[in-house]
């Protein structure tokens, strides 16, 4: 798939702008603070209805404006579809083919995007929460129904935690409601866990050889999902449900004592190893970056495998950070099949072959 054009209104530092994109490579050039990341973010928002760098939709609307709008035409399965996301004081609206999609899980997946930006190093270096977010976003865009179960899980988790707090403070003694919420939590949590395990399995099949290639065969990547309950990667849904049941039963008094839910997918993590060493603890900056890059490239292949079309790739400020070998490897992988957007403050750091093929956009002060 690719994005043919985009129009933004009152979005970030853009008052109004329309751009026609190249089917292959688009290079966005501009000095600091001119709107390069904002433009990448606009494409990301069109895919996910939310930003990769803020959870506050309000920040996307141009200062002192009533609303902000992003529209784009997506070409996929040999057809063109309009997409539109509008933010205002009334909330946000997302339209696919001019029709408003009330449920997020009905809209997401219309456009598949993989972004690689400097902050993706946090995927390796950062907190477990950032790794869970990676799985949730990437898995969600491949299987929108996952977003539904995750949303339900998070809602029930909040209620359950509030109830556990009440039980802890003895504002409440009856545990009937707790048992009902536990059952609902297991219903959605076990699906979330099962989908994550399957996703990880497939992602690893792509990421390991890609990583091997980027590191010229010198490094071996390993990825482990670290669940908060005792399951392995091929545990089936039935067994996951049983495992959670047993855990919540034996943990009940401790959960009441602590006033919070102690097991579940919201407590899980991922660990990356390079040549058997934990990359988070021992990896160099370059090794951490290569790990993150391999995951993103694996995601591109996985989307093609699952969705039947390649996603759009957004490279914000990262291409010139990669050494020559990594840059060529990246560009060879995507050559001709993945529509790519690259931002840079200067064309100096970018291969001349890339520049020759690319459509160039000079961004100055939101224009
Ligand atoms: P850099 O090279 O430093 O990464 P950039 O070109 O990627 O720069 P952006 O992150 O796109 O810069 O930001 C461009 C400008 O947009 C910034 O000056 C920022 O203050 C401004 N900006 C951000 N949000 C809004 C908003 N809601 N309304 C108006 N301007 C905004
Ligand atoms: Mg930027």
From TrEMBL:
Binding sites annotated in the UniProt record for ATP: 30-37
Domain RecF/RecN/SMC N-terminal: 2-347
Main location: cytoplasm
Superkingdom field: Bacteria
Short name of one Pfam family: SMC_N
UniProt keyword terms in alphabetical order: ATP-binding, Cytoplasm, DNA damage, DNA repair, DNA replication, DNA-binding, Nucleotide-binding, SOS response
Cell compartment(s), UniProt: Cytoplasm
Role this protein plays: The RecF protein is involved in DNA metabolism; it is required for DNA replication and normal SOS inducibility. RecF binds preferentially to single-stranded, linear DNA. It also seems to bind ATP.
Family: Belongs to the RecF family.
Protein name: DNA replication and repair protein RecF
């Amino acid at each position: 798939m690719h994005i043919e054009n985009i129009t933004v209104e009152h979005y970030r530092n853009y008052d109004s702008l329309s751009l026609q994109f190249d089917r292959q490579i688009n290079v966005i050039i501009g000095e600091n603070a001119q709107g390069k990341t904002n433009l990448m973010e606009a494409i990301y928002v069109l895919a996910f209805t939310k930003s990769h760098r803020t959870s506050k939709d309000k920040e996307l609307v141009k200062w002192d404006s009533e609303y902000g709008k992003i529209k784009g035409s997506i070409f996929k399965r040999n057809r063109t579809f309009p997409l539109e996301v509008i933010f205002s004081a009334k909330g946000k609206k997302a339209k696919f083919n001019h029709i408003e999609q009330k449920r997020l899980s009905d809209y997401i997946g219309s456009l598949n995007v993989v972004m690689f930006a400097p902050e993706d190093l946090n995927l390796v270096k950062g907190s477990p929460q950032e790794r869970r977010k990676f799985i949730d976003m990437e898995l969600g865009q491949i299987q929108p129904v996952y977003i539904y179960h995750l949303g339900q899980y998070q809602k029930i988790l909040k209620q359950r935690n509030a109830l556990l707090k009440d039980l802890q403070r003895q504002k409440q003694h009856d545990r009937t409601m707790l048992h009902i919420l536990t059952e609902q939590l297991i219903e959605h949590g076990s699906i979330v866990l099962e989908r994550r395990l399957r996703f990880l399995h497939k992602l690893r099949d792509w990421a390991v050889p890609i990583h091997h290639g980027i590191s010229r065969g010198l490094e071996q990547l390993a990825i482990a999902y670290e669940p908060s309950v005792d399951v392995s990667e091929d545990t089936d849904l039935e067994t996951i449900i049983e495992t959670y049941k047993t855990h919540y039963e034996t943990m009940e008094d401790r959960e009441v004592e602590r006033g919070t839910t102690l097991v579940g997918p919201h407590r899980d993590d991922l660990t990356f190893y390079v040549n058997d060493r934990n990359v988070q603890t021992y990896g160099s900056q370059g090794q951490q970056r290569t790990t993150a890059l391999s995951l993103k490239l694996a995601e591109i292949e996985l989307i093609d495998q699952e969705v039947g079309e390649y996603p759009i790739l957004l490279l914000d400020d990262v291409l010139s950070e990669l050494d020559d070998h990594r840059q060529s490897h990246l560009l060879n992988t995507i050559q001709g099949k993945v529509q790519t957007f690259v931002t840079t403050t200067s064309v100096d750091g970018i291969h001349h072959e890339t520049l020759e093929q690319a459509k160039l956009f000079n961004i100055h002060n939101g224009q």
